[in-house]
């Protein structure tokens, strides 16, 4: 199938604008591959330190004749998605020995749960935890002991942070190792219903906790299609997993075999062999476009509007929201997984999963087939489904037809002919809206605005009945530089209630809403942010604001002369406590959301 012309055009534009940065990046990883210290060149003291505690692997590591695999783990047992990783390092060491290799835990990185910190002070650390994870991963890989790496991470900021750092050591072959989603519990729609009842005072805290506990009930990723599961989709469509590894549940035999296959494979694709697959070559412009296409086709998390630009920059590649928006016009929405539909990610997997999605998108010319993956010379095998045949891992054809067309469809009968993402521009700046979960009748909202600086203030106004009208709720000073850009999920239930009462409601914010963004139209990630003079700071209560996904506009309908004379308000003082003050340097140097909201520099001197 010929590549879709829009995919081709956007890819070529990304190649052109990335040419200098990508050239410098490839030169960097080439030098690292040639000049970086190697185990065999370490001094006796260096080497003795590195294998002192390696037990039966000591002799193999000492001789430096076999691949030594760095394991970077985000394990903790508070985070349900990462709790299964507890035994992974010791299993990976056994799997490595099966092919004559060795493995060491090179380092651990923090893994915070946005589900726990939602609406709490800790959420102000969430976005910058990605940068902290990248720094921790860099430290783990700084020892000249490894010829390959396995990354154990799943959730929101964790996979992007691991990938950003791994790309800076892009001469190493690297495979991402997921652990899978928890089995389905209470239906997400029912959980959302109870949340809204609680927001209205019609359900008790005990009833709410019971519903939440029935939904989040065991080991594994949360089952809605938020950032964590969007991460796994993305690693799959970029070819950075063992094919089909994204969504089998924890504790299953096939999950173990997929992990075994990752350990075996990374041991065989190092520089000393005949199938060298360095990560920096796998993640090129085409792979980044594939990640965006996968996000759009499946209605994935808006957090990746921030993460993908940051990941791309780590590989010397430049993408922006215009690229996303143009691709969205060409990419059909082939999946509806909660919050865009009623089924969860386990239902998506049962309907055909990533094998079905990738095969169908390849067949329509909507994905680049010719990318270097960690497994194969192109993306073809990722369009198949892993299964066990007498205990051995094999890949068979994905279902010829979707096994549940309420969840998964081929492009010819897609839920929508576009990817459910709109770029909004106007005198308030640039923002994005995830439209795939928003009824089309609400894609345009024009109403007086009400200004807030915290989500708690929005909740108080809601409870006081002050928002029982058509309203555009504006929450500003929520960007990366202001307070670390926390997700604003405390807003979802009250705004949903207002909408259900028949009011025209929209949200405009320089903050985030993430992969659980739902049925209320939300212009998010507004750039430039309020801190530093972004025009959102000029808004006043009762200004008329127009949010229109159909036209791609975000406008304050204010007389131009009046608008130009307005000053921006003094920002709220930065909060301290819970260590937030330790991240002041990151806030001060953070990029705008469209560039990734990162405080890290990817080129020396910049």
Automatic annotation (TrEMBL):
Residues 407-596 form the Dihydroxy-acid/6-phosphogluconate dehydratase C-terminal domain. It catalyses: 6-phospho-D-gluconate = 2-dehydro-3-deoxy-6-phospho-D-gluconate + H2O. The keyword Transmembrane helix does not apply. Residues 68-378 form the Dihydroxy-acid/6-phosphogluconate dehydratase N-terminal domain. Its EC number is 4.2.1.12. Catalyzes the dehydration of 6-phospho-D-gluconate to 2-dehydro-3-deoxy-6-phospho-D-gluconate. It is an enzyme of class 4 (lyase). This is Phosphogluconate dehydratase. Pathway: Carbohydrate metabolism; Entner-Doudoroff pathway. It comes from the Bacteria. InterPro entries: 6-phosphgluc_deHydtase, Dihydro-acid_dehy_C, DiOHA_6PGluconate_deHydtase_CS, ILV_EDD_C, ILV_EDD_N, IlvD/EDD_N. It comes from Blastomonas marina. Its cofactor is [4Fe-4S] cluster. Coiled coil: none annotated. Gene3D superfamilies: IlvD/EDD C-terminal domain-like. [4Fe-4S] cluster binds at residues 155, 222.
């Amino acid at each position: 199938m010929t590549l879709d012309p829009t995919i081709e055009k956007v890819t070529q534009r990304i190649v052109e604008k990335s040419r200098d940065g990508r050239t410098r990046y490839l030169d960097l990883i080439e030098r690292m591959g040639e000049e970086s210290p190697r185990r065999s060149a370490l001094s006796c003291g260096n080497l003795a330190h590195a294998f002192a505690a390696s037990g039966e692997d000591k002799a193999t590591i000492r001789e430096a004749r076999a691949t030594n695999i760095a394991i970077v783990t985000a394990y903790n047992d508070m985070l349900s998605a990462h709790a299964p990783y507890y035994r992974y390092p010791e299993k990976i060491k056994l799997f490595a020995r099966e092919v004559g290799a060795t493995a060491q835990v090179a380092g651990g990185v923090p893994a915070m749960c946005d589900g726990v910190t939602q609406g709490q002070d800790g959420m102000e650390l969430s976005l910058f935890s990605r940068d902290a994870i990248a720094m921790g991963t860099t430290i783990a890989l700084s020892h000249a002991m490894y010829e390959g790496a396995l990354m154990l991470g799943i959730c929101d900021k964790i996979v992007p942070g691991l990938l950003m750092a791994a790309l800076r050591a892009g001469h190493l072959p690297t495979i991402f190792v997921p652990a899978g989603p928890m089995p389905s519990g209470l239906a997400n729609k029912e959980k959302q219903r109870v949340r809204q009842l609680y927001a209205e005072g019609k359900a008790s805290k005990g009833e709410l906790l019971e519903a939440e506990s029935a939904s989040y009930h065991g080991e594994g990723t949360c089952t809605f299609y938020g950032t964590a599961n969007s991460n796994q989709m993305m690693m799959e469509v970029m070819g950075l997993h063992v094919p089909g590894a994204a969504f089998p549940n924890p504790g299953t035999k096939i999950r173990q075999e997929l992990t075994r296959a990752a350990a075996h494979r990374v041991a065989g694709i190092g520089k000393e062999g005949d199938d060298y697959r360095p990560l920096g070559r796998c993640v090129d412009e085409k792979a980044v476009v594939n990640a965006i296409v996968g996000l759009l086709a499946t209605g994935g998390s808006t957090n990746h509007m921030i993460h993908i630009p940051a990941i791309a920059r780590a590989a010397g590649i430049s993408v922006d929201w215009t690229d996303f928006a143009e691709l969205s016009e060409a990419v059909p929405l082939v999946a509806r997984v909660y919050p865009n539909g009623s089924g969860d990610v386990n239902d998506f997997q049962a309907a055909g999963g990533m094998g079905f999605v990738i095969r169908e998108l390849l067949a329509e010319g909507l994905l680049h087939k010719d990318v270097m993956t960690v497994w194969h010379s192109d993306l073809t095998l990722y369009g198949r489904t892993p299964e066990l045949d007498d205990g051995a891992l094999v890949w068979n054809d994905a279902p010829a037809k979707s096994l549940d067309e309420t969840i998964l469809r081929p492009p010819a009968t897609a839920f929508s002919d576009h990817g459910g993402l709109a770029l909004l521009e106007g005198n308030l700046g640039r923002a994005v809206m995830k439209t795939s979960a928003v009824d089309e009748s609400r894609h345009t909202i024009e109403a007086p605005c009400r200004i807030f600086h915290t989500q708690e203030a929005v909740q108080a106004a809601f409870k006081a009945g002050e928002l029982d009208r058509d309203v555009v709720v504006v929450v500003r000073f929520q960007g990366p530089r202001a307070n670390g850009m926390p997700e604003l999920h405390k807003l979802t239930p009250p705004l949903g209630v207002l909408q259900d009462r028949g009011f025209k409601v929209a949200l405009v914010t320089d903050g985030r809403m993430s992969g659980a963004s739902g049925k209320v139209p939300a212009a998010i990630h507004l750039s430039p942010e309020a801190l530093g003079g972004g025009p959102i700071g000029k808004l006043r209560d009762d200004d008329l604001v127009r949010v229109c996904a159909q036209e791609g506009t975000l406008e304050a309908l204010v007389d131009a002369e009046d608008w130009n004379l307005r000053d921006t308000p003094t920002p709220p003082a930065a909060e301290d406590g819970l260590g937030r003050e330790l991240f002041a340097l990151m806030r001060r140097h953070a990029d705008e959301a469209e560039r990734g909201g990162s405080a890290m520099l990817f080129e020396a001197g910049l």
